[in-house]
Specification:
Layout lengths: L5 E5 L4 H12 L5 E4 L4 H11 L6 E4 L2 E4 L3 H8 L1
Parallel strand pairs: 1-2
Antiparallel strand pairs: 1-3, 3-4
């Protein structure tokens, strides 16, 4: 699990984003976080990569998960 490249686009004000980060941390998954509330360029980057404006957007080895979909995350993190 530790060799996966995980990027998460978040907004620190949203509970779903906090839950997603907590879940990854509980699993021992390290990730790079981009808080779109603090970096407007990351908003554009996130939309370009995912086609979505909703957060969290989680990218695991190039696979995109929009929202906190625990089953999908588990599948991609195996």
């Amino acid at each position: 699990m530790g060799d996966k490249k995980v990027i998460i686009y978040t907004n620190s004000y949203l509970s779903l984003c906090r839950r997603a980060k907590e879940y990854l941390s509980q699993k021992g998954i390290s990730y790079t976080e981009h808080n779109i509330a603090q970096d407007r360029d990351k908003v554009k980057e996130m939309i370009q990569k995912s086609g979505q404006m909703a957060v969290p957007v989680i990218i695991i080895d190039g696979e995109i998960v929009v929202g906190f979909d625990q089953a999908k995350l588990d599948e991609l993190l195996l």
